[in-house]
Design goal:
The complex is a heterodimer of chains A (414) and B (167). With 414 residues, chain A is an alpha/beta fold. Chain A is 30% helix and 18% strand. In chain A, helix 2 (31-37) packs across helix 4 (66-81) and helix 7 runs parallel beside helix 8 (199-207). The chains are: A alpha/beta (414), B alpha/beta (167).
């Protein structure tokens, strides 16, 4: 019997517990709380390896209060004192995007992070998964931890997405089908016609693995992966891709015809509450958000700008634009996308997590409704218990911002 | 002992709103906001030895550990649910909080039923009915028995870094 991706990377059979040393440990603004738990041990033993941590300040940036500013300062001082090699200060971007852009997410690597969307690096054939702060603290010191080798689900994709339909519609449809716990504890492998999905589209899909309960979600490494890494100065000799054997054992197998996927929306307050956009067409929104680690990359902003260029968002509504990184922002600037979105009425926010978790920037008021490209629509997520969050693709959010109502992007012609 | 009963897919934003994640980390800072968006009565009413009962996928969402730290500090004896989200489950092992995945026990509970838990024996009694749940694998039991992952790690570090030295 062959082995799954997870069994090969972790070196054990499904359901066994193994000890492994991750290549990287991602932490962000929560680094301050993590190092606060282990100050005496850090002083005595130091960090396990200076190239293990990847620290990105992104969650509440620029600082929104004295307390968050003091957290950032403590993290900067820690990074300097311990010679942390991969430290990215306020403004670099959202941790997941930065880690990928800097070529740190390489095929076959094990990466853990004290952020649930760490699963994003499965787009680059990493075994990547989220952990809690205490686990991160222990890893900083020891550099290794236990993993239960997950059972696996094989999702086979066939065909290609239709115009106006995006990877976000695909992953929301998948979550709608299997449920918010449909892949609980499991490794989700994407097989079949993945060559038609860009790296950014794979990122969007892997990013939402945790929203179906998955431990990790992963794509094979192929020419698209190699070209991306090559562009970041990482040659093929710098990694070793891993993939499942054809006769590996799966607990569940699913097939998706990409041509049948339509624009969908996840209604409040769970990510698996998914219906076609047409079923809820006309629902009014107060705020629109294009961006985040799910859909804040150049192709996402480009798709939104393509719809909004030369037009205006509906009166009485707000459009927030949140690029995933400084590099994305600058590329969008060079391409004229920032100007298009701004002139259409968009408010361009600094790269970071901002409104997605309701910490600051774009918090909702009671009774308001937001249509967002983020990954979560939980009650209270954007800072207000009495507000609604609906999730959709950048195309759907942009088309809806024009009308102020939920709109199928295929209806908006140029 | 009071039983607090909730439904399916209770996520970490309901257990501890994201807007506080970078301003509240200690048990004292966490407790007033615990379950704030799920049950405003909880923070003021929870007592040592209480039990939470819930449906499937308890603790889904963010990796924030404040819900676990808060429930442990509040003295919650155990969370009994139909299933748990994995980051939450791992965080509970790391904090030494007892989680029991036992759908039958959740379904059996009726208002007023007492709950008794024998963690070591893997037994839970709900009213007149008794159920079994599988114990943690040995490697993870070691972490919980050490009082959580940090005490466990401190012990390991002393061994690894000072071989033959004083314990």
């Amino acid at each position: 019997m062959g082995e799954t991706f997870a069994e090969k990377v972790l070196g054990g059979k499904a359901n066994e517990i193994v000890i492994a040393a991750p290549h990287h440990l991602l932490t962000h603004d929560n680094t301050a709380a993590i190092i606060g738990k282990i100050a005496p041990e850090l002083a005595e033993y130091g960090v396990a390896r200076p190239d293990l941590p990847v620290i990105v300040l992104d969650h509440v940036v620029p600082a929104a209060s004295e307390k968050t500013a003091a957290n950032h300062k403590r993290i900067r001082e820690f990074a300097a004192a311990h010679g942390i090699r991969h430290f990215f200060d306020v403004g670099a971007g959202i941790c997941h995007q930065v880690l990928v852009e800097r070529g740190l997410a390489r095929p076959g690597r094990i990466i853990v992070g004290s952020d649930s969307h760490t699963c994003s690096y499965g787009a680059l054939n990493c075994f990547a998964t989220g952990i809690d702060r205490t686990e991160a603290a222990a890893l900083l010191l020891r550099g290794k931890t236990w993993f239960k080798v997950p059972e696996s689900i094989r999702v086979t994709l066939r065909g290609a997405l239709s115009p106006g339909v995006s990877a976000k519609d695909l992953v929301l449809s998948l979550i709608g089908e299997i449920g918010a716990d449909g892949a609980s504890y499991r490794s989700v492998e994407f097989h079949g016609d993945v060559a038609g999905l860009s790296l950014e589209e794979r990122f969007t899909i892997a990013n939402m693995g945790v929203e179906m309960g998955a431990k990790n979600a992963v794509f094979p490494a192929d020419g698209i992966t190699r070209a991306f890494l090559d562009g970041r100065g990482v040659p093929e000799e710098g990694y070793r891709a891993v993939w499942a054997d054809p006769d590996a054992a799966y607990v569940r197998e699913l097939a998706f015809d990409l041509g049948e996927v339509v624009p969908v929306v996840a209604r409040p307050h769970t990510v698996d509450n998914v219906v076609p956009v047409t079923e809820e067409a006309g629902v009014r929104f107060d705020q629109f958000l294009v961006g985040t680690c799910t859909n804040g990359r150049l192709p996402d902003l480009r798709a939104a700008a393509g719809i909004l260029r030369g037009r205006r968002v509906a009166p009485g509504t707000r459009l927030l634009v949140l690029p995933a990184s400084k590099a994305v922002f600058e590329a969008a600037l060079d391409e004229g996308i920032v100007a298009d979105l701004s002139r259409a009425g968009g408010i361009v926010l600094p790269p970071g997590c901002g409104p997605c978790l309701g910490a600051h920037q774009g918090v909702l008021a009671p009774g308001e409704r937001c249509l967002s490209t983020a990954n979560r629509n939980f009650r209270g997520r954007m800072g207000c218990r009495e507000a609604e969050i609906w999730l959709a693709s950048p195309e759907t959010v942009a088309a809806s911002a024009l009308t102020g109502r939920l709109t199928d992007p295929r209806e908006v012609t140029r | 002992m009071r039983v607090w009963k909730y439904g399916d897919d209770v996520n970490t934003d309901m257990l501890f709103p994201g807007k506080y994640t970078y301003t509240a980390s200690t048990p004292e800072e966490i407790l007033p906001h615990l379950l704030e968006d799920l049950d405003p009565e909880f923070a003021g009413g929870v007592r040592e030895g209480d039990v939470i009962l819930a449906g499937k996928n308890f603790g889904c969402g963010s990796s924030r550990e404040q819900p676990v730290v808060g429930l442990k500090a509040a003295g919650v004896l155990a969370v009994v649910a139909k299933s748990f989200a994995r980051i939450f489950y791992r965080a509970a092992i790391n904090q030494g909080l007892l989680l029991i995945a036992c759908p039958e026990a959740v379904d059996a509970w009726r208002e007023g039923d007492a709950i008794e838990i024998d963690a070591a024996g893997g037994r839970i009694r709900v009213g007149d009915a008794a159920f079994r749940f599988p114990p943690l694998p040995r490697e993870l039991l070691e972490i919980r028995e050490a009082g959580g992952l940090l005490p466990f790690t401190r012990r390991r570090l002393r061994k690894e870094r000072n071989p033959g030295g004083a314990r």
